[in-house]
Request: fold
Amino acid sequence: MKNLFILPFILIISACAGSGYKDRSIHSQELISPDTLIFVKRDTGYVGSAALVKVIHNGKTVSEIGDKESVTIPAVIGTNTLSVDFTGLASVGSGGSTRTIGLKEGEKAFFTIALNQGLFSTELKLYETNQTDFMSD
Reply:
């Protein structure tokens, strides 16, 4: 009986938390900065919440984020390549997504990571969005 009481707490504690922010208002100062930035939020829902998603910018892993988390990436002026994929065992049998974007000085780009689940496959998708949609829940 005691184990049944403890089990829900273990499940809650063991939920994957990444290196991103749950509160997108953290990005307020970055939105008004003159820096060239890429903003990425993850919205994969319950099905995809068991594993972290690594965010790769120009070939380098910059963050691993959990569901409903977001991250800001300093971008380069010109061509930027953004990729996402699951970490660990979740990456087996699932597909990632890659987008190439061109940015001008001071420009901001906004992306949402979504999960497309089929009968025999799972695929992460990167969708370009706008600032208003990015900041909403």
Remarks:
- The longest strand covers residues 108-117.
- The radius of gyration is 16 Å.
